[in-house]
């Protein structure tokens, strides 16, 4: 069974541009979560989707948005890019919907490395 | 390879020794904890988890200890191997989100 895939793997943008990142979860998984990883802040939660609905959102500005499609694939968008948005963006999927209680496991993709110049 | 974190605490151990990685968590209401391993260029990989109603759980070569009184987690790796070299994160659950610690870099030397 294929793992979580993220495209593109690497991306270079300039300040002010916008970017869309894509995540394909493991087949049959319905929950997708997004995380930002930076050297300074570590791994930080962005948002979680289940059955096309955003259930939870982290403490990020409105420039960060996402969506989930009926096939569970997810995209996240960052508008008006800033230098501080340079990071590794990780997507994770789970089978039944992440409850955070041990009844399900999140599987992470390899991430998209975004560099903002 | 890619660096997943700068200025991380680093633990250097010799191959075959046991490793202990420590983590302090922040939310006393958290009831589920996970340890992840992240190798260069890859996403975090699940190692072992523990619920708050337990204080110890063992897996294959790994043991997690939970001390709720002082909000402390530890990951013990027995007979550390070169393939164990990676960054290790603990995470606590907050609703639908995982709150990750800063990570510890484990370096296994021959």
The number of strands of chain B is 10
For the report, how would you describe the main beta sheet of chain A? 7 strands, mixed
The proportion of residues in beta strands of chain A is: over 45%
Number of helices of chain B: 0
- The gross shape of chain A turns out to be globular
What profile does the largest beta sheet of chain B have?
6 strands, mixed
Strand content of chain B: over 45%
- N-to-C CA distance of chain A: 37 Å
Radius of gyration of chain A: 13 Å
Mean pLDDT of chain B: 89
Number of strands of chain A: 11
Pair with the most extensive interface?
A-B, 30 and 30 residues
Distinct helical segment count of chain A: 0
Low-confidence stretches of chain B: 1-6
| Helix-strand pattern of chain A | EEEEEEEEEEE
The separation of the N and C termini of chain B measures: 20 Å
Proportion in helices of chain A: under 10%
**SSE ordering of chain B:** EEEEEEEEEE
Oligomer: heterodimer
Would you tell me the overall average pLDDT of chain A?
93
| Sequence stretches where pLDDT stays below 50 over 5 or more residues of chain A | none
Descriptive notes:
The complex is a heterodimer of chains A (117) and B (110). Chain A is mainly β and 117 residues long. Chain A is 0% helix and 51% strand. In chain A, the strands form two sheets. In chain A, strands 2, 4, 5, 6, 9, 10 and 11 form a seven-stranded mixed β-sheet that branches. In chain A, strands 1-3-8-7 form a four-stranded antiparallel β-sheet, with no helix packed on it. In chain A, strand 4 and strand 5 (42-50) form a beta hairpin. Chain A is globular and about 40 Å long. The model of chain A has no long low-confidence stretch (mean pLDDT 93). Chain B is built from no helices and ten strands. Chain B has strands spanning 10-14, 19-24, 32-38, 45-51, 56-58, 62-67, 72-77, 86-94, 97-100, 104-109. In chain B, the strands form two sheets. In chain B, strands 1, 3, 4, 8, 9 and 10 form a six-stranded mixed β-sheet that branches. Chain B has a four-stranded antiparallel β-sheet with strand order 2-7-6-5, with no helix packed on it. Chain B is globular. The two termini of chain B are 20 Å apart. Chain A binds chain B through residues 4, 33, 35, 37, 39-40, 42-45, 48, 55-56, 58, 88, 90, 92, 98-102, 105-111, 113, and chain B through 2-7, 31-32, 36, 41-46, 49, 51, 89, 91, 93-103.
């Amino acid at each position: 069974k294929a793992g979580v895939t993220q495209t593109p793997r690497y991306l270079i943008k300039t300040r002010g541009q916008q970017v869309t990142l894509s995540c394909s979860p493991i087949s049959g998984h319905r929950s997708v979560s997004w995380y930002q990883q930076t050297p300074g802040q570590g791994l930080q939660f962005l948002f979680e989707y289940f059955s096309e609905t955003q259930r939870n959102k982290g403490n990020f500005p409105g420039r960060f948005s996402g969506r989930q499609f009926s096939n569970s694939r997810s995209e996240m968008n960052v508008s008006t890019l800033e230098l501080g948005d340079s990071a590794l963006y990780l997507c994770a999927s789970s089978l039944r919907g992440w409850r955070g209680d041990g009844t399900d496991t999140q599987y992470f993709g390899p991430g998209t490395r975004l560099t903002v110049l | 390879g890619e660096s997943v974190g700068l200025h991380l605490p680093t633990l250097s151990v010799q191959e075959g020794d046991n490793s202990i990685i420590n983590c302090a968590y922040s939310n006393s209401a958290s009831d589920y904890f996970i340890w992840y391993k992240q190798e260069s260029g890859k996403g975090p990989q699940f190692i072992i988890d523990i619920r708050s109603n337990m204080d110890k759980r063992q897996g294959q070569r790994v043991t997690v200890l939970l001390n709720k009184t002082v909000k402390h987690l530890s990951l013990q790796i027995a007979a550390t191997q070169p393939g164990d070299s990676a960054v290790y994160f603990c995470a606590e659950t907050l609703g639908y989100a995982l709150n990750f610690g800063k990570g510890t870099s484990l370096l296994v030397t021959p």
